[in-house]
Every structure is written in C-alpha cells, then in structure tokens.
Amino acid sequence: MKDIERFINGFRVFQNDYFGSDSTHFESLKKRQNPSTMFIGCSDSRVDPAILTNSSPGDLFMVRNVANLVPPYQMDDKLHGVSAALEFAVCHLEIEHIIILGHSSCGGIKALMDGTCGCKGGGFISHWMSIAQPAKDKILAELPDKDPTLQRRAAEQAAILLSLENLHTFPFITDRIRQGKLSLHGWYFDIEQGELMAYQPHAGAFEYVTEKADR
Ligand SMILES: [Zn+2]
Fold first, then answer.
1. How many angstroms is it from 162 CA to the middle of ligand 1?
2. DSSP annotation string for 120-176
3. Residues of the chain with pLDDT > 90: what percent?
4. Given a cut of 80, is residue 37 above it in pLDDT?
5. CATH 3.40.1050.10 spans which residues of the chain?
6. How far is the CA of 23 from the centre of ligand 1 (A)?
7. Distance 147 CA to ligand 1 centre (A)
C-alpha cells in the first residue's frame, strides 16, 4: 500500500498546485481542453511526454502504447484505440502538431527484434508489434551484420518513421496537412545520453536538438 499512499499524497500536491486558492490554471480547463499538440508515446515508465517537455495539464493530448506505434488507417469493425484518439485530436480538437516520441532501450522494439514477444495466454504484444515488422525487415536488410544493440536503436528510429508514414494513410490527417493546419514530427529520446533527437527530413536522419549544458 506504500505506493498507493505515495500516489494519493502526490495528488494532494497536484491539487494544491492547480486547485489552490492562488491558482487560476484550471479555471478555463474546467470547461474545455484546447491542446495544440498530440503526443504518441511509449507506455514505458521513463518516457512520459508531459514530464519530458515540462508541460502542464491541458497542454498535451496523448496516446501511449507499447513502442509508440501508429497502425495504418483501417476502417473495419475492429477496435481501433489509436485511430479513435487521432480522429478526436485532429477533427474535434484541431491540434496543430502530432509528435511520435520514440526512445532508446524500448522493450517493445527489443521484443520485436529478438522475436520474444508474448507470454502464455498472451499474444497481444506480438500481434501489436507486427505493425513495426517493416521497420525490423528494413534494418535487418540494411544492417545485417551489426551489433544487436545498434540494430535495435536503428529499428527504434525506423519504427518512428513507419508510424509517421502510417499517419499519412488517414484521410483526415492528410487533408489537414494539405491545408497547412497540421504538421507531423518524429522525436527520439536517448535515455542513456539524456538527450532529445528529432527527425530532420532534409538530412534524412535523427539529429540532436538539445545539448547538455556541460558540453
Ligand atoms: Zn518503449
């Protein structure tokens, strides 16, 4: 119960910060949210977009799942959680940016690369990670003899690009991009270095966008 008490105490701090007598932050948020940006991040406990970007409640519309994946557009009778969130963010909230936030040491990508997805009675992870199979195939073809650690890092970044490609299969997203009202971004959090990289289309590569103060 120690952890649960810690979370409730944490909520008290939040409550005091945002609902205390000297805070007006939630006054407009009580009526509606109006975020400009959607993050699609990994479920990994180390890569919370709100914490990493020093954001506040109301700033980020968010989906987090195993390996921060976006499936391709598919209109069928299956249950599409990511697609529903995308539709709400783009069509109703009219967000201006979608950021796919990947990261180093991603367990989902490691499972995909190692072929160790799933557990007894499971199968959800391997089926979900099949979205990123083209990224795995690409990296194994391009870097066949490289160290597995390097292959995983390349696959983590390739999976971000694949999710960006998949975003382009949604008609309501391409419409907004064409109208100049929406832009897409691929980011990569390098946990070991404590640095943020962003995909630069002109360079065709992820580049560091932050530098440590002591460099
Ligand atoms: Zn991950």
1. 15
2. TT--HHHHHHGGGHHHHHHHHHHSTTS-HHHHHHHHHHHHHHHHHHHHTT-HHHHHH
3. 87
4. yes
5. 36-208
6. 35
7. 20
For 36-208, give the CATH class: alpha beta
- What distance in angstroms lies between residue 16's CA and the mean position of ligand 1's atoms? 32
**Model confidence pLDDT, tens digit, residues 25-34:** 898 899 999 9
d(CA 192, CA 4) in angstroms, rounded, equals: 29
Calculate how far, in angstroms, residue 92's C-alpha sits from the geometric centre of ligand 1.
Answer: 28
pTM of structure: 0.95
Strand partners, 199: 206
- pLDDT over 70 (residue 4): yes
pLDDT of the residue at 41? 98
Please tell me the distance between residue 62's alpha carbon and the centre of ligand 1 in angstroms.
15
